[in-house]
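Troubleshooting log. The previous structure file for this entry was overwritten by mistake, so regenerating from the original sequence record. Sequence copied from the archived sheet and checked twice against the printout by T.R.
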Amino acid sequence: ERGRGTRVLERAGPAAVRTSIDGWLESVSQMERATKVRLLSCDYLSAGPDIASVLELAEGAEVQRSVRVRTLDDVPMSYLVCFLPGVIGRGFAPEDLRKSALLTLLERSGHKIASARQTVSATLAAPDTAQALEIHAGEPLLEVRRITRSADDRVVQYIRALYRPELYHIEMSMIRKAGPGGPLWSAEEGIAP
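Regenerated output below.
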């Protein structure tokens, strides 16, 4: 505030969670142990055209929509909006969303995770997201969108995760390979997180 000066904080904020692109799905158990979850909402609704398309369902099909905030040392670090086909979401209780990561719940309910496609970009915090993350509207966030498939190639989850960039870092190991037009960078295979 104006006229009050500055002061040194006695305690630095929590250390950032680091995850590897190569072992992202395997690091779910690490995330479960290091963080806590607050369930803001969980409901069932009819899929609009965008969500139906992503989940490969008919428009109007029932989907579960959950909104959660994950905290690290009691500091909000991520805002998670997740959609599941309704029949899958009904395989566990909403209270379970407070206790376990969704990928863990999916596997426990018989949906073995086989693959995922994810994009990472930047965005700005909308007012509702900013309030949940205890930041100002318009602050930068890391945005991760992921579509997860089961072993039978069925889409079982679509998630939009918004992370505070000072609390979440994504790492990727790469190697230099020969390509048709010359050397190129490629994600290194077989790297553990």
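The chain has six helices and ten strands. Archived copy saved in two places this time.
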